[in-house]
Amino acid sequence: MSTVYRVECSLRAILVSLIIDIKATWRSHSLWALATYITGETPFPEFTVVVMLDDVQVGYYDSNMENFIYRGQHITDKTEDDEAQDGAHVFGDIYQSMKHRLFKLKHHFNLTEGVQVQQKMAGCEMLDNDYAIYYNMTHFTYDIGILLLGWDGMMQAYERTLWENVYLPICIRTLKTILKREKNVVMRKIPPRLRLIKKEVSGGFQVSCLVFGFYPRHINLTLLRDGQPVAEQELTGGEVLPSGDGTYQLRKSLEVSTEELKQRHHYTCTASHLSLDNKLDVSLESGAERVHLSTLSALLVMVLIVILLGIFICLPRRWSNTASLSKLANVDAKVSEVSKVPSLQTKQDTGETNTIDNEGKGIGSS
Superfamily for 193-288? Predict the structure, then answer.
């Protein structure tokens, strides 16, 4: 019977949640190596590492290439070579350590088939006063719910000494180097856009505060009811999510019953962010007005399109009818002229003329 390790969460999710917990201020920055070791039949390399500066990927390493690839915005040959050498050394050690640990786990649980996954996250953070701290954590869970006990005290002491005296200086040096080159990326400030949305749901309405398009990721979003903050336990959502374009978004929603809606509460969304000098506020009335105006604009555009289509359809028909009438008039005129000519010729041929005397009486024919 094979047992498959279940990975609790992806490396990026672990990184994001950890940054929220430990990042005291915006001025502190961190460098992270997020490693995954996999055994079994998979299309992935056995060992991969993603390197993150704060929340921006700046490097990659895997056991197939055995080289550190810098993926930042600014690259120079010298710094790239230095980082590649340090990265290959450190990640090679982590690779062997994770392989040895997983070998012991497989032997302990008698695992012979299936896919086994182990994840490790290590990094350092540099605070405002240049004080440096490091992190070294391993994440794995198993179907049978039993974890292998930690290594003996001597091995733990060895790893602690290795991280404090070898890996931490390398990490801090690399952090300072990459931060100097990528400061325009990780220290940029993009102001948020704020919306207050009201929509009908079963049993009432849902009032939502949506803030999006902002960077850095830290933001304060509050939903106010009659000027007072709504308790967090009444709200749903509240998790900052990436938007896929290098910015973030956050939504908080409140369920409002039909009876409560009759009380005509005043709802307001307020957001504060590093890119803003003052708080950003949007009320439900202004949001409703925007929706009303946008709907009215859409209706006007549709009416204009219908009118233009009607003009384009009717004008060719009018032109066609006018042209037909003009042709008929020309034909009638030609027929009339043709019909008059033989009559005059006939009279000339017979030599008949009529004369009128001064009294208006006919004298006769000659």
Answer: Immunoglobulins (2.60.40.10)
The amino acid present at 319, given as its one-letter code, is W
Q: Could you tell me if 189 and 274 are in contact, meaning their C-beta atoms sit under 8 angstroms apart?
A: yes
Domain boundaries, the chain: 11-186, 193-288
Which ranges of the chain does DSSP label H, i.e. alpha helix? 11-22, 77-109, 153-162, 168-186, 258-261, 284-350
Q: Give residue 134's Cα distance to chain centre.
A: 32
Burial 5-17 (b: 16+ CB within 10 A, else e): bebeeebeebbbe
**Per-residue tokens: 352:** 């008949």
pTM of the model: 0.61
pLDDT tens across 232-262, in order? 999 999 999 999 898 999 999 999 988 887 8
Residue that is written with structure tokens 């070294």 in the block: 136
C-beta separation of 248 from 215 below 8 A: yes
How many alpha carbons lie under 13 Å from residue 304 in its C-beta half-sphere?
6
Query: What phi-psi label fits residue 175: left (phi over 0), alpha (psi between -120 and 50 degrees) or beta?
Result: alpha
CATH no. for 11-186 = 3.30.500.10
